[in-house]
Amino acid sequence: MDPDRYKKLASKYEAKRPVLQNCIRAFWTGGLICVIGQAVSYFFIFFFDFTEQTVGNPTVAFMVFLSMLLTGFGIYDRLGQFAGAGSAVPVTGFGNAVISAAIEHRTEGFVLGVGGNMFKLAGSVILFGVFSAFIVALIKSLF
Amino acid sequence: MKKMALAILLLAGCAPEHDGTALIETANPDAVQLDGHQDGLAEKIKKEADSTESIYDTAVVKGKKELLVAYKVRHLDRFKMKDIEKDLTKRIEKITGKDVDVVVSSDYKIFLEAVRLKEDMEADLMSEKEADKRLSEIIKLKKEMT
Fold first, then answer.
1. Is the pLDDT of residue B14 over 60?
2. Nearest to A104 by CA among A127, A72, A132
3. Nearest-angstrom CA–CA distance, B73 and A38
4. Are B32 and B60 in contact (CB under 8 A)?
5. A51 vs B142: CB contact, 8 Å cut-off?
6. Are the beta carbons of A45 and B112 separated by less than 8 Å?
7. A51-95 pLDDT, tens digit each
8. Distances in Å between the alpha carbon of A109 and those of A114, A116, A122?
9. Quick check: B76 and B59 in contact, CB under 8 A?
10. Best of A28, A35, A50, A51 to mutate (most B CBs within 10 Å, chain B)
11. Which residues of A71-80 are buried (b: 16+ CB within 10 A; e: fewer)?
C-alpha cells in the first residue's frame, strides 16, 4: 500500500493524543519537582554551611539520588508515565535514565550488562553537557 | 489526591511562628556595630541600603575592619543583581571611606548568618571579640565559590 494512503487510513483509527492534558501534567509535575529541589536547597542553606552560590552541587546530588531510589522502587516509572517530559526534563530524569538502563540489563551480568549499558541513555546527556560547557567556557575566556 | 491536599493543609498549620528569617518575609534586624564606636555608622549604612527601591530587607554588621551588608532583592529585580550590588557598594564606600573593607551580599545564607549573629549578641551568647571573629567567618563563606 502507498505509505501516504496508509497514514491517512491509520490516522482514522488512531486515538487522539490529549496534548493539552499532557502539557498541563508535565507543567505541574515538573514544577513540583523544582519546588522540592528549592526546598532541599533551602534546607542545605539553613542547616549547613552552604551559600546560594555553593548549594547547587549538593542539591543536584540529592535530587538525582532520590530519583534513583524512586526508580529502583518503581515509583518514578509511574510518575514518568503520568507526567512525561515533566519528569524527564528536570535533573531527576537523569537519575531515572541511569538506573532504569541498569535494571533493564541486570540479567546480562554486572560488567557487560549493568556496566556496559548503564549510561546508554545518560551518556549522551553527559557528552553534550560537557561539550557545551567547554564551548561556553571557551567563549567566556575569549571575550 | 484529596487526602494529600488535606495533609498538606494540616501540616501547613504546624509551621512555626514567624521568625523573620524566611526569604519573603522582612526581618529588618537592627544594625550591629562591633568596633566599639558609637557613631551610628552602621545605622546610617542600613538607612542608605534600605533606601534602595529594589531592596526590601537589610542586615548590617560593622566589625573592626570589615563591614557586612546583606540584603534581599525584590523578586523581579533579581535580573539586575550585579548592578544593584555595584551601585550599593559605591554608595556605601562613599560613606565609610577607603579604610573599611565593604562586603555586600544578596546571598540568603549571609543574611541568615548576619541575623543569627545579631540575635546571639543580643542574647549575650558571645563577646564582641567572638562576634568579630564570626563576622570574618561569614565573609569567608561569601567568598567561597564551589
1. no
2. A72
3. 17
4. yes
5. yes
6. yes
7. 999 999 999 999 999 999 999 999 999 999 999 999 999 999 999
8. 6, 9, 19
9. no
10. A51
11. beeeebeebb
**A10 Cα distance to chain centroid:** 32
Does residue A16 have a pLDDT over 70?
A: yes
Residue with cell 491536599: B5
The stretch A19-28 carries a mean pLDDT of: 96
Residue range B22-36, pLDDT digits in tens: 666 788 888 888 877
Q: In which residue are the cell numbers 501534567 written?
A: A25
Q: For residue A54, which residues of chain B lie inside 8 Å, CB to CB?
A: 144-146
Q: Per-domain residue ranges for chain B?
A: 2-143
- Find, among B22, B25, B64, B67, the residue nearest to B43 by Cα: B67
Question: How far apart (Å, rounded) are the C-alpha atoms in residues B113 and B122?
Answer: 14
Residue-level pLDDT at B19: 54
Contact A51 B107 (CB under 8 A): yes
| Helix (H) or strand (E) segment spanning residue B69 | strand B66-73
Answer yes or no: is pLDDT of A14 > 70: yes
Give me the helices (H) in A73-121, please. Answer: 75-83, 85-88, 92-104, 116-117
Residue environment code for B91-125, b if the CB has 16+ CB neighbours within 10 A, otherwise e: bbeeeeeeebebbbbbbbbbbbbbbbbbeebeeee
From chain A, pick out residues whose CB is under 8 angstroms from the CB of B110: 51
Mean pLDDT of chain A: 93
* Sequential DSSP letters for A110-142: IIIIIIHHTTTTHHHHHHHHHHHHHHHHHHHHH
